[in-house]
């Protein structure tokens, strides 16, 4: 670390600025905005300095080391290398912090690029090595940070004392503020600059904070690639105090969960339900009743064969507040990464998603409808019943030469795609590992042209072991 980032309180402190041109003018604005007691040394001043009125002292002189007497901070902003060098050497000899503009080698402190949302301040610096990059970062941050952020900080400062009295525990206070800042109600009041209404809402929240139950957010983690997480999903898992996750959630996504959160595996895998659904339901209610912000993290989309609806029914019956953040389902994500469009004007006018698992009563789907041509059939969790699926589709009229694909660990660096025909489905499935997605339909043939992820080294995230296996037709 070349520099220690810190924020200096300059209110009423003596600061010397050497220079009277445009660059010195910019530094004067910053220093005066921070409340510095500014002395400016320069034989001449840019006329724009008149905007400051009598808020600084001007010495119409050339700099001498005597000007440093009594100063605590020094800035050299002249166009003379000799003068700037003299300022630096003289100030450094006295142990004063000194900045020579655009000369990091002669500076014991530097001015970062500042995003001002007072009292919220964000500073970005490259130590003088990449000023253009810093400017681009500042522009990006300016667009991300709302204008009312400073007012929100002032508001929280007024309520902070009461929060300490009402909520003795640090964790309880943190939980209260996290929920408040994430609230759409507070956000709406602040955006309208209804500061009295916002303060009243916060105080009312404190009055009932100790008796409140927590909440559960059902979050879709997508098919595996952390880049496919929605922004809202990322926000939720980074705010969660407890995360209950499935085995389908990739390790890379779990790495994004906040470090102090409690992680609870309630993973389910074909043929190996490590945690019964009833136990998962019980844990959701228990953690929420304890006042926690709980995220139920599911692979793909929580409402797509993920029992999300069943879990929310339990929460609704128990009076637990909940919300849902959708995710990219495997059918959309894995097929896109495999170069297989779900629909195509020439090959498929519809797409149907089904699960390979059946309810306990063993009720079969309408195979006649599933076997029609010009339709893409996507089967979740179908490996174990692949032979049955293959037979039913053929028996109901689907051609044995229909292209099929099995996408293993879709969108992840270790993605593997096995392609063949419907006649080969059971044979291919025996070579695949869970989680895998089965895709059946004419669109699979387009993969030869459209494959992009992990192909010929074009996907940086793809592992060298990514494989595309095609069997000789058995038809």
Automatic annotation (TrEMBL):
Keywords of the record: Cobalamin biosynthesis, Lyase, Methyltransferase, Multifunctional enzyme, NAD, Oxidoreductase, Phosphoprotein, Porphyrin biosynthesis, S-adenosyl-L-methionine, Transferase
Residues that, per the record, bind NAD(+): 22-23, 43-44
GO biological process: methylation
Keyword Translocase: no
Cross-referenced SUPFAM superfamilies: NAD(P)-binding Rossmann-fold domains, Siroheme synthase middle domains-like, Tetrapyrrole methylase
Active site: 246, 268
Gene Ontology molecular function terms on file: precorrin-2 dehydrogenase activity; sirohydrochlorin ferrochelatase activity; uroporphyrin-III C-methyltransferase activity
Location of Phosphoserine modifications: 126
InterPro entries per the UniProt record, alphabetical: 4pyrrol_Mease, 4pyrrol_Methylase_sf, 4pyrrole_Mease_sub1, 4pyrrole_Mease_sub2, CobA/CysG_C, NAD(P)-bd_dom_sf, Siro_Cobalamin_biosynth, Sirohaem_synt_dimer_dom_sf
Function statement: Then it catalyzes the NAD-dependent ring dehydrogenation of precorrin-2 to yield sirohydrochlorin. Finally, it catalyzes the ferrochelation of sirohydrochlorin to yield siroheme.
PANTHER family attached to this UniProt entry: SIROHEME SYNTHASE, SIROHEME SYNTHASE-RELATED
HAMAP family according to UniProt: Siroheme_synth
UniProt-recorded name of the protein: Siroheme synthase
Organism whose genome encodes this protein: Aeromonas eucrenophila
Gene that this polypeptide is encoded by: cysG
